[in-house]
């Protein structure tokens, strides 16, 4: 760990450790950091953030039912709506050929992803992006990797009608559900009596949002214990990784706040411009050149279970991902022109040592 001394040499430790040379020994490095990061995040040193960049300090995950969209939060407090939504989430009837359910791609034991490079729909049709995790969805204004959904209701209905996903027009799905006496009763109990049929597209979307978007939360980890003030919750390597995450590795520029995401869109240099796997991200939806190559920042909560990583599932390991960040995701496109994606200025070479990468990796596995 001696190579990590440079990470710590500039740290201003608490009074009881200022006379000690941080980095002289492993124990002293850890002791210095534990003094820096004692108590709760509001009392920690500010992270390394680019000038003018807004950010939020880390904090506990908001409780179930919290959402940026008030109607969704209200529905999440109705246990009958939540129960109905959970049933729908796992029901393959929602897909046209009854081959897949929402849970086929958003698997709870895989951080609500599916472990595949690309999402796989009915008849084995593959999309060009991987299944995004859902943990940050309740708190975002623009959803999917490209932000094309403006509401949670749009987010849950989109895959149902997408021809390479569930491939089921709502005009066909609603009559199918209406044929079920169980579903008719469940919708009526959840939403109340209706002058027409109790099942419609709006109620379907509201139930799915309430049950498996607004109420799902990442599993609590030792990271949560640490930010609650338990300084013994992380071992020395994990603690050094936390410090690197907040400083030299520059991760906090995008992965901040309680869900470890700014819910923003950034170009990290993975558009594959002019190649077979080209994906121009948000631009493909907005047609705004300012959006070329932009993808939504995912939450890093429970990230170790969410592989393969990135919007295209390019990285089968977090170690490989960190090493690419270390070299600023490789060279920029050689082409010039107004429609060539340009990497965010936040993506810079980091010059991390192997020990530092391993410390970051250890920290990511705790999240």
Can you tell me about this structure?
With 367 residues, the chain is mostly helical. The chain has three domains: 1-29, no CATH class; 37-59 and 220-364, Cytochrome c-like domain (Cytochrome Bc1 Complex, Chain D, domain 2, Orthogonal Bundle); 70-212, Orthogonal Bundle (Cytochrome Bc1 Complex, Chain D, domain 2). 32% of the residues lie in helices and 1% in strands. The chain contains 14 helices and two strands. The protein has helices at 5-8, 26-36, 70-75, 79-89, 102-105, 152-161, 170-178, 181-191, 201-212, 222-227, 236-246, 283-286, 318-326, 354-364; strands at 265-266, 295-296. The protein has a two-stranded antiparallel ribbon with strand order 1-2. Residues 8-21 and 23-28 have low confidence and may be disordered.
């Amino acid at each position: 760990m001696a190579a990590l001394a440079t990470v710590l040499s500039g740290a201003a430790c608490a009074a009881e450790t200022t006379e000690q040379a941080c980095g002289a020994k492993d124990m002293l490095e850890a002791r210095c950091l534990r003094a820096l990061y004692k108590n709760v995040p509001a009392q920690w040193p500010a992270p390394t953030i680019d000038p003018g960049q807004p950010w939020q300090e880390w904090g506990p995950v908001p409780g179930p039912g919290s959402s940026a969209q008030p109607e969704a939060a209200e529905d999440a407090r109705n246990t009958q709506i939540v129960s109905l939504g959970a049933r729908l989430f796992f029901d393959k009837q929602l897909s046209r050929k009854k081959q897949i359910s929402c849970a086929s791609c958003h698997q709870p034991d895989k951080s609500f992803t599916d472990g595949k490079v690309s999402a796989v729909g009915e008849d084995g049709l593959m999309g060009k992006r991987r299944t995004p995790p859902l943990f940050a969805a309740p708190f975002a204004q623009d959803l999917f990797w490209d932000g094309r959904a403006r509401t949670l209701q749009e987010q849950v209905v989109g895959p149902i009608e997408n021809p390479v996903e569930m491939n089921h027009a709502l005009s066909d799905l609603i009559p199918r559900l209406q044929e079920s006496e169980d579903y008719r009763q469940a919708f009526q109990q959840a939403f109340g009596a209706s002058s027409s049929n109790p099942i419609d597209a709006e109620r379907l979307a509201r139930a799915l949002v309430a049950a498996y978007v607004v109420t799902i939360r990442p599993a609590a980890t030792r990271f949560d214990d640490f930010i609650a003030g338990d300084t013994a919750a992380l071992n020395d390597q994990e603690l050094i990784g936390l410090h690197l995450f907040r400083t030299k590795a520059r991760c906090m520029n995008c992965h901040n706040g309680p869900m470890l995401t700014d819910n923003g869109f950034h170009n990290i240099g993975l558009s594959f411009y002019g190649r077979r796997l080209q994906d121009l991200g948000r631009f493909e939806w907005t047609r705004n050149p300012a959006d070329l190559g932009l993808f939504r920042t995912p939450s890093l909560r429970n990230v170790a279970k969410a592989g393969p990583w990135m919007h295209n599932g390019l990285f089968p390991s977090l170690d490989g991902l960190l090493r690419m960040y270390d070299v600023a995701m490789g060279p920029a496109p050689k082409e010039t022109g107004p429609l060539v994606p340009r990497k965010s200025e936040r993506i810079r070479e980091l010059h991390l040592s192997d020990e530092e990468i391993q410390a970051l990796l250890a920290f990511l596995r705790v999240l």
